[in-house]
Design goal:
By secondary structure, this protein is an alpha/beta fold. Helix content is 35%, strand content 16%. It folds into four domains: 68 residues, no CATH class; 247 residues, Rossmann fold; 207 residues, 3-Layer(aba) Sandwich (Dimethylsulfoxide Reductase, domain 2), CATH 3.40.228; 140 residues, Barwin-like endoglucanases (Beta Barrel), CATH 2.40.40.20. The strands form seven sheets. The protein has a seven-stranded mixed beta sheet. The radius of gyration is 25 Å and the shape is globular. The relative contact order is 0.16. Bound molecules: ligand MGD (2 copies) and molybdenum atom.
């Protein structure tokens, strides 16, 4: 594989044609991509009524590989009729995530009932009757309900309403494995839990801090904005233990100049250790104070806690900051200098910040840094968590969380005339742990791949096995269906967003509520999530109660309820008529009045955490490759990191030498949670020494269940691991990476967690 020096570019363009061929031609793919539906991948929010491939600033064409992949996945043919008679569960367990995904669209409900080693098709009525019967047998607090951020606001709202009226608050969503630390940290600091800027603000900034994020792979459409910042003479400072190719240079496919010559992205690239951000960010704040570059007028008028924070900053030693961040004093000085001279600064971040046991502290430290120079509460400056799933923000807004805001709870009760349960609900990891402890009997997953997303994959699989019933609503097969089996497991096939019979809505990361028109179903069989949920609710709760569930089968009716219940969503009630997409008021902060009881922001003090890992150990981050969307792996190669396979650990050459390893040697990687054998140790000088990189979800057996106490987000990016040699370097047929099931290194096909590449 030729080493790539730029992200995006011609490979992205060729990819479009390749995908088009796969799905039956460019016209067909173009039509699908241009339909009036919100883009299915990340939360940068394309499409909606502006039509596909148009961003929130109105720019066209905005395409990314991931949206093509997601579309092509939905456009595939149905799973073969004889598929489930042919492949037994142990065989499905040996499939890779990509193989499962490309088996085709699910079109019929399926059941695994423990009687045989096979899934078998069942009728819709049978499937729903069985689920309803089970819900009648168990008590509500023995159930949990998980929603991935792919579903619509309407389906999310309906699910949480159903679960609560049924009697439980055990309702959670994938943000507990994602940006929950951003929500909690931002609320603590400024009283808003989402981005304080919109896309135009970012375009108007003259400095963007990009922290712990890899948008070249994961939010490619942000790259045009970053390119523009540089073209306007602004700066992009990247903070990342890995030098990501696409963040150094990116060829924006829709910009001729950029496509031909590439665009420089980072103006300064700083590599802390994994988990070193808190010390680094605090160090920059300390230096600003030393330089007298803080905005004292802003701090005294709009912030609480500056005296205390300044006292701490002054007491910190530079030696400590250097040791705990891995960044030297001169680099921190340079960062502070550049920040001090910028007029409008946006701070953007993703999982490199949240996936830590101090994720909330990380986010609060970013907010501190912005506030000390008055960079929140005015145009072209502010805080921007770059959200993951296309509707993860909306799913949270409409109440898919264990603890509802008081205002929403009261309005739900008065609007529907029902008392709702007050017992504390379980978040995502708490649900898995309660299942493992035998306290839960039933799990319901609206989209996503809960098994595949979990830390400690072995434990997660065992937890699901304890349940009497698991129900999965999905478009395609995934590893959860093979490894996340309960005693009885039912899969219900659903329609994708652009196949919905009625319009649905999604909220972007800039709090824009988008209207998706839906469209014709591509297959006979799958049902809309809304139809399934309302049918099930009617079967479980009857239609004589406070809610007419049959009426809740129309998305317009659900929008009407949401508009009356969720503050700021009033316009949703008329959206069918007006077709007017809208920004949720109060989220973008264009003035320094914060929605807190004092109208002020709060600065927070944190102890600087020591770096993880004992002597001889390394810090492991588990990340996405360029060719995957979360647990769905579309391609084994990682274009931007120049890797052709996924069973690898990327290590700095100094670490290889220190451990007596040579490049491409098979190694055993172990942590407190588990071990993987026959991992190929790759020499990678773009990662800071002392830190290693592996791919999610394959590496999830190594991730411990340690969570940030404040946000309950697992430390997916910061696992202490030991790397040991296993044999001679690979030259020829590579060995198969396997999960080590005991200390005797016993392995088996069912333990491969989809690692076999075919
Ligand atoms: N193509 C594609 N797009 C996606 C997704 C996908 O899987 N594929 N997933 C979607 C979802 S749900 C999400 S949440 C986002 C995820 O988007 P990202 O957060 O960009 O994804 P990751 O690959 O998990 O990790 C991001 C970066 O964190 C860095 N990092 C790791 N540890 C640290 C650390 O301690 N400090 C710092 N500063 N950096 C660190 C890694 O080097 C990596 O570059 O993308 C969304 N978009
Ligand atoms: N080690 C490690 N673990 C991680 C992470 C990490 O960086 N490292 N990242 C975490 C993060 S940020 C997240 S968000 C989670 C991801 O958590 P999830 O959202 O649970 O997982 P996904 O892999 O995105 O879910 C993929 C499945 O969604 C289904 N699907 C696709 N479209 C639709 C639809 O329209 N409707 C329905 N009902 N189903 C659909 C498909 O069947 C597909 O198999 O993983 C987390 N886990
Ligand atoms: Mo995410």
């Amino acid at each position: 594989m030729r080493e790539r020096k730029t992200g995006g570019g011609w490979p992205a363009v060729w990819y479009t044609f390749r995908k088009a061929r796969e799905v039956g031609g460019i016209v067909k793919l173009w039509k699908a991509m241009r339909s009036k539906n919100a883009c299915k991948t990340c939360a940068l929010g394309m499409g909606g009524q502006a039509g596909g491939m148009v961003n929130e600033a109105g720019h066209f064409p905005e395409v990314c590989k991931k949206s093509l992949q997601a579309m092509a996945s939905d456009m595939q043919g149905a799973v073969r009729r004889d598929f489930f008679e042919t492949y037994s569960l142990p065989q499905l367990q040996a499939f890779s995530p990509r193989e499962l995904e490309t088996c085709g669209r699910l079109t019929t409900p399926l059941i695994y009932d423990g009687q045989s080693q096979y899934y078998r098709p069942i009728e819709w009525d049978d499937a729903l009757a069985r689920i309803a019967a089970r819900l009648g047998e168990v008590s509500p607090d023995e159930t949990f309900w998980y929603v991935s951020g792919r579903s619509s606001n309407e389906a999310g709202f309906l699910l949480q309403l159903f679960a609560r009226i049924y009697g439980t608050n055990n309702v959670s969503n994938c943000s507990y494995y994602c940006h929950q630390a951003s929500g909690v940290g931002l609320s603590n600091s400024i009283g808003v839990s989402t981005a304080t800027v919109n896309l135009e603000d970012v375009e108007g900034a003259d400095l963007v801090f990009l922290i712990g994020a890899n948008p070249a792979s994961n939010h490619p459409r942000l790259m045009r904005t970053l390119m523009q910042t540089r073209r306007n003479g602004g700066e992009v400072i990247v903070i990342n233990p890995v030098v990501e190719t696409g963040l150094v240079n990116f060829s924006v496919p829709s910009d001729v100049r950029s496509l031909m010559f590439g665009s420089a992205i980072a103006s300064l690239y700083v590599q802390p250790h994994i988990g070193g951000d808190l010390a680094l960010l605090t160090g920059i704040a300390k230096r600003l104070d030393e330089m007298k570059a803080t905005d004292e007028a802003f701090l005294s008028a709009h912030c609480l806690g500056w005296e205390e924070l300044r006292t701490q900053l002054r007491a910190l030693s530079w030696e400590d900051i250097h040791m705990r961040s891995g960044v030297d004093r001169a680099t921190i000085d340079e960062m502070a200098r550049r920040y001090a001279r910028a007029k409008n600064v946006v701070f953007a971040w993703t999982m490199g910040i949240t996936h830590h046991v101090h994720g909330v502290a990380n986010v609060e430290a970013i907010a501190n840094l912005a506030l000390v120079r008055g960079m929140v509460g005015r145009p072209n400056a502010g805080l921007m968590p770059i959200r993951g799933h296309s509707n993860v923000q909306g799913i949270g807004s409409v109440g898919v969380m264990p603890k509802l805001k008081d205002a929403i709870l009261q309005r739900l009760e008065s609007h529907f005339g029902v008392p709702l349960p007050k017992t504390p609900g379980l978040d995502t990891i708490a649900s898995i742990e309660a299942a493992a402890a035998g306290q839960l009997k039933f799990g319901f997953c609206l989209g996503g791949n809960l098994f595949g997303s979990n830390p400690d994959a072995t434990f997660a699989g065992q937890a699901m096995q304890q349940l009497d019933m698991a129900v999965y609503l999905n478009t395609t097969l995934n590893t959860g269906h093979a490894h996340g089996l309960a005693k009885e497991t039912i899969i219900l096939p659903v329609l994708a967003r652009d196949e919905e019979p009625e319009p649905t809505t999604q909220e972007s990361m800039f709090s824009l509520v988008r209207l998706s028109d839906g469209g014709p179903a591509r297959h006979k069989g799958p049902r809309s999530e809304i139809a399934i949920l309302s049918d099930l609710a009617r079967r479980v709760l009857g239609s004589s109660g406070p809610i007419r569930w049959d009426q809740m089968a129309t998305s317009g009716q659900i929008r009407e309820s949401i508009s009356r219940i969720i503050p700021g969503w009033e316009q949703l009630g008329q959206i069918d008529r007006t077709r007017q997409e809208f920004h949720i008021p109060g989220r973008r902060l264009s003035e320094a009045r914060f929605p807190t009881p004092t109208a002020k922001a709060t600065l927070h003090i944190h102890e600087l955490p020591a770096l993880r890992g004992g002597p001889g150990q390394l810090r492991l981050m588990t990340v996405r490759s360029e060719g995957q969307f979360n647990t769905v792996v579309y391609e084994d190669y990682d274009l931007y990191r120049n890797q052709t396979r996924r069973d690898i650990v990327l290590m700095h050459p100094d670490d290889l030498a220190r451990l007596g390893l040579v490049a491409d040697q098979p190694v055993r990687v172990s942590s407190e949670a588990g071990a993987l054998s026959n991992v190929i140790a790759r020499s990678y000088d773009k990662i800071k020494a002392g830190n290693v990189l592996m791919y999610y979800p394959e590496a999830n057996v190594l991730v411990t269940r340690a969570v940030d106490p404040a946000s309950r987000t697992p430390a997916f990016k910061n696992v202490a691991v030991t790397v040991e040699p296993m044999g001679a370097p690979v030259n020829g047929a590579p060995p198969t990476m396997e999960i080590v099931t005991s200390d005797a290194a016993e392995t088996g096909p069912s333990s491969r967690a989809g690692m076999r590449a075919c």
